[in-house]
Description:
By secondary structure, this protein is an alpha+beta fold. It has helices at residues 14-65, 68-71, 144-153, 206-224, 229-252, 259-266, 278-289, 304-310, 320-325, 337-343, 347-371, 376-385, 389-413, 474-499, 515-529, 559-568, 570-577, 583-595, 600-658, and strands spanning 73-77, 83-87, 94-102, 106-110, 123-129, 132-138, 160-167, 170-180, 186-191, 419-422, 427-431, 435-439, 443-448, 451-455, 466-472, 547-549, 555-557. It contains 19 helices and 17 strands.
Amino acid sequence: MSINPMGMGAGMDINSMVSKIVNAERLPKQQRIDNERTQIDTSISAYGRLRESLDSMKMLMAEFRQEKAFAARTVDSTDESVISATATTEAIAGKYAVDVLQLAQSHKIASDVLPKDVKFDQGKLQISLGDDSFSIDVKKNARLVDVVREINSAKDNPGVRASVINDVEGPRMILASDYSGAEHNIQISVDAEIGNPLKQFEYKTLEDRIEALEKARANAQALIAPESVSEDEEGQDVAALSEDASDEESLDQPFSADPNAAEANMAEDLNGDGVISADEMRAAVAAATGKPEDTIPGWSETASGTLLDSYQFPEPELDQKALKKAPDVPGWSNTASGTLTDSYVTPKEAQAALDSELAAEQAAIASAVANGDMTEEEAKAIERAKLPKEEQERLEQLEVAQKALVAAQSSFDAYNGMTEVQAAQDSMVMLDGVAQLSSDNNVIENAIDGVDLTVKNLSKPGEKPAEIGIEYDRQRVQNDIEQFVAAYNQFYQTTKDLSAVDPVTGQMGPLAGDSIVRNAESRLKSVFSTSIEKAPEDIKSLTEFGITTTRQGNLEINYEMLNKQINNNFNKLGEFFGGNDGFAKKVEDAIHSLTGMTGTIRTREQGMVERNYRLNDDQDSLDRRMQSLEQRTHAKFTAMQDATSNMQSQLAGLMSAIG
């Protein structure tokens, strides 16, 4: 039998023995760290609960300080099926009667029925939606679906949707605007040959077609009408003056100095006997020569009667032809009459010769056109070339106007394009029977300051219009005050839970005995009992709202007093709660001193976090020491086991030698 010195054998469990030794060494130190960590975590959690309950009150007070709660408005409609409204803080309380005259709708047009297998020739569609436009090119042999796809896929399409409706008689193309409103009208012009089915996609309203026709007529009329009103009026004035002058001369003057009149007199048989007498010739000459004072020697006003009776005009030495020419001859006199009248070509003679020449030329041109040697256009060009430049330009303008007029008339007469299915129109309401409001959609923004109206249906004729009522949101203010009281009561209950001590078990809350809880309570109660200096006289403290502290320490509301203040002094509530000196700001400041970055609760939390960091360092140090202890202990046991094994080998050899 083998004997193990000191009772140790080769098969002992070194690891188990080392683990027990190390754990025995670690346990008290680890328990201290764990207990402290648990306490820190509990404290951090408790401070967090306390801070959150205070921050809830702070957020409510921020709403009061900024007066957002008092700026809220409520909006009611007596007929939500016709109109509804929303109001911002800018809205003024009041009631408004609203008649919905029309709803906004988008423009929609449709083509006539097309053959099922219709194919289009090459062309272009120019489509506009309000002020925006785009165009598509239609290829030869394109089908209706191809045109629809081109319209819908156009990158610059501003919002026109095309679709095909399969009518019982055949397909139709429908175009609709994505946007409502009168300014989003669809217009289509087609650039295609006559006879191309693509022409059926043209769309112009009857008013547009009439306007285009009237415009073309007006342009043509403007070229035919007098060049300017001033020139026309000037001509009328000249005619009037001439008429007045002729009337005066006929009454006061025995002779006429008008050459045209004299010429007419020369061509006229005064006696009606078919022969112009010598006296008639003398009278004609006298009329042509001018006034009697310029003709009768020794003329004076006093002797005018005698001279006119006794003076004999010299017998003319001119024949009838010369007498007719005499008034037109410059420098004519009795002495030079023969020579001048024989040699001078009068304007009438020149005009007659020119007319004769022109007549012959026109006859030659007409003959050339009739014989086919010249076209009518060439004949017109020849005639036009003889005119002054101004007249040529005027004729060109007239031709352009005439072509435009013919084209407009042809377009008006031959129109067979798309028809309107639904007119584009704005929504329109009548406010209080006096103000008319409109929008390109069914929401009329800022119809009343701070109020947006949403129209849903037309008002029924003869019935009372829907009424929009805008009021201050008193209920919201009451709810906010109730939330504030509830937030404080929650805070108060939280402080009791965190700092309480159970008298039976002796179990204490995580913040039992912590001065920070008492500090928070006292600061808030101090604000609650403080009078607000700048507030109205009848609203100086919370108690005047009916908010008081109970014996248990929480807050309660006397609703009779609260409703009285809200209903009677709503406009004054902001002076108590709001501003930098109001109740809300004082509560915010008190809470900020606790929960702010440098507040006492934040400072305590930060201290707990730093302690946690130190515990982490302690834990790391303990782990390192225990690891070193484990290694040393394990080495000792291993060495001891090796030594025991050697002793056993020696003992076994000795026993063999003896035995």
